[in-house]
Amino acid sequence: VRNKTIKAEVHSLRVKLRKAVTAKNATEALEVARTLGKKFDKAVAKNIFKQNTVARLKSRMMAKVNALKKA
């Protein structure tokens, strides 16, 4: 039950980030990315996600946010 809650929170944050990136809202995207990074790290600590999965997702997320900042 707890895992589902955390996964749902992460999913909703990822959707929020995706919408901020498509709307080209750099400040909101950066803020959501920071929150999402913290949630990912806590989820790894609790063995909800595997470390490599989180590393891959965070890397892709930050690549999109950084590209948005440069544009």
Structure description:
With 71 residues, the protein is mainly alpha-helical. The chain has three helices and no strands. It has helices at residues 2-22, 26-45, 51-70.
Write a brief caption for the model.
This protein is mainly alpha-helical and 71 residues long.
Which structural class fits the helix and strand makeup? Answer: mainly alpha
Number of strands: 0
How many helical elements? 3
Give me the oligomer status. Answer: single chain
**Rg to the nearest angstrom?**
12 Å
Note the run of SSEs as H and E: HHH
Keywords for this entry:
3 helices; single chain; mainly alpha; 71 residues
How are the SSEs placed, and which strands pair?
Blueprint: H1 2-22, H2 26-45, H3 51-70
Helix pairs in contact: 1-2, 2-3
